Backbone:
């Protein structure tokens, strides 16, 4: 990835390095232990770690929880470190997310993701769909152990929304701007919003903060998917949309959602994620302009 873009994400990775390494250990411990002595399953889940992504959804959980902890810290009670429960929740969201991508690659008949063969291409559709189901159910297994009914309800509803929107896209594709944004919200932003809200809930946020962080997740999620469609040249052709402008508008909305939160490192890194989306989109525009010139 280009350095100019990467710098914003790198800062977040460095800031959360301890938590992200705990997350990696947790995922490895869980996925590789229940496949021990079962070489076939073991190969499948080893592959899961080879095609690892940016861990953006866990990052949203951890930064939102951290921001709330900072907000509630007083002079005689300083902000604490991420709890084990936050790491467990981060593992849950990564498992749900990856299960959705494995299923998406089957639906889209994609052969590659993140420069690697997709599960369906490397193994086959039958293995991939079941591996996706295994990741998904394992995510909910960890979730149940957290005994957080409010958070379980948020994610159950979110997954329902994601599946419905994927079915809708197949049977009745969107025909206007509003439907397009609603689709991006359902398939991508709803999970990001759930990550922010649940991180906030775990850290003991009040309703106002939960709602603002949920809106932040929605807005950065829509911007992120707009950017993804823009980079993949997948913007809708059947109605007018300036996709780069819309990406920036949703990024601005996301920034606004954080305005009332106290300035701190967690807020700074949530804003770095917004900057990453803006700069990555602008870079494509610059490249396109260079080609035209
Ligand atoms: C990527 O879209 C797809 C998603 C963000 C969500 C896919 C959701 C499902 C398949 C529903 C099933 C959900 C679960 C949790 C089992 P894209 O194809 O536009 O982007 P891509 O370029 O990353 O493939
Ligand atoms: Mg796809």
Residues:
């Amino acid at each position: 990835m280009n350095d100019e873009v990467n710098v914003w994400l790198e800062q977040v990775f460095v800031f959360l390095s301890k938590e992200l390494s705990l997350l990696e250990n947790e995922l490895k411990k869980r996925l590789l232990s229940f496949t021990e002595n079962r070489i076939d399953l073991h190969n499948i889940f080893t592959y899961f770690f080879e095609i690892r992504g940016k861990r953006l959804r866990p990052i949203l959980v951890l930064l939102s929880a951290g921001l709330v902890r900072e907000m509630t810290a007083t002079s005689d009670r300083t902000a604490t470190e991420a709890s084990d429960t936050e790491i467990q929740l981060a593992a849950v969201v990564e498992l749900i997310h990856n299960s959705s991508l494995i299923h998406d690659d089957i639906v889209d008949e994609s052969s590659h993701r993140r420069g690697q063969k997709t599960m369906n291409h490397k193994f086959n559709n039958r293995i991939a769909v079941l591996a996706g189901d295994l990741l998904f159910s394992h995510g909910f297994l960890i979730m149940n152990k957290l005994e957080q009914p409010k958070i379980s309800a948020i994610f159950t509803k979110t997954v329902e929304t994601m599946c419905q929107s994927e079915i809708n896209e197949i049977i009745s594709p969107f025909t206007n701007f509003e439907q397009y944004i609603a689709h991006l919200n359902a398939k991508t932003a709803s999970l990001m919003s759930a990550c922010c809200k649940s991180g906030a809930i775990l850290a003991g946020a009040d309703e106002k903060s939960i709602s603002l962080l949920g809106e932040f997740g929605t807005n950065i999620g829509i911007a992120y998917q707009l950017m993804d469609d823009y980079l993949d040249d997948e913007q809708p052709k059947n109605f007018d949309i300036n996709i780069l402008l819309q990406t920036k508008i949703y990024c601005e909305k996301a920034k606004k959602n954080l305005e009332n939160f106290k300035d701190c490192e967690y807020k700074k890194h949530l804003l770095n994620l917004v900057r990453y989306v803006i700069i990555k989109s602008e870079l494509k525009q610059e490249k396109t302009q260079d080609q035209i010139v």
In short: The chain has a mean pLDDT of 91. The longest strand covers residues 112-113. The domain at 3-71+78-288 is CATH 1.10.600.10 (Farnesyl Diphosphate Synthase).
